[in-house]
Amino acid sequence: MLYESSYLEEKAVLQTAARMCAAARTAPKAHGKDTVHTLVLTGEEKEQLAQKMEAIGTREMGAKMNTWHGRDAANLRAAQAVVLIGTEQKQRGVPHCGYCGFRDCMECKNNGGNCAFAYVDLGIAISSAVSLAAVDMVDNRIMYSIGKAAAEMGYADGVLWLGIPLSIAGKNIFFDRGIFHD
Length: 182
Fold this sequence. Notes:
Layout: H1 5-26, E1 36-41, H2 43-61, H3 69-78, E2 81-88, H4 105-110, H5 116-135, E3 139-140, H6 144-153, E4 159-167
Antiparallel strand pairs: 1-2, 2-4, 3-4
Helix pairs in contact: 1-5, 2-3, 2-6
């Protein structure tokens, strides 16, 4: 049987994406509470996410949208897949913590604060995932703009997302991204 490189590269990206989701799931979590969510988007779902990124960029930056959200949306479109990794923004119940800036979890919650461990858990999960992508030699980039769009699309309520587009190409598509100036 003959396998074209494009077919094998698509399979490799999806295998890496699945392994990244497993790495995020098994990453250490604060107070032993698993609040990590993962999703993988390709095709039309990935395009809808790119469109949402552009809409957010236009809303937030107007004519300068391409300096960030538009540039990232173009990278997302060029990527074969995107891995979304998120964590719930609820208090973990770590006793005597205060990392959030409040006395305890109840005070944090009552004042609309965010648990610092949500960010710690997300960082560890993301780091575990991208280190695996690096081992698999799949180009990737961690993007806040993808996560913001995912949150606004409502993939899961109360989840803080980051996105990692994945690409296999002759040249890393995330390298010469440039920043557009007036």
